[in-house]
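[User] Could I get a sequence and structure tokens?

[Assistant]
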Amino acid sequence: MTRHSPSTTRRLLADIVSEPAVRTAALLALCAAYIQGPLTKIFDIDGAIAEMEHFGLNPAPVFAVVVIAFELTASAMVVSGRLRWMGALALAGFTILATFFALRFWELPAGMERMMATNAFFEHLGLAGAFILVTIFDITKGAEK
């Protein structure tokens, strides 16, 4: 078995992760919830409207359409590289707002539901952090498509 030096391994990993296909796959993975969610809403518009009503957003049909358009547009910006920083920052803000709006774990009684909501809350904060890192990278290093 051949042993690689740390610098050789680092260069090899840099070559792999800098490939456009890897970058695109990573950005698609990052945006997966913001692509899957609106597609689900499109194919179940009544469910999308019910979700908006559940959260007290009125008029619910308007909010459903706006959320669908927003998530798909911002995801397309992130994945395509066209104003990537803006799409990523918008999704970070949306995620933080939605997280504090929908995952108020501190209001739930102790138990499994609270634990699951707590985990989801912090996972969403991590997702928002990843979008902020994309924004930082895009603004400071430039984006290659």
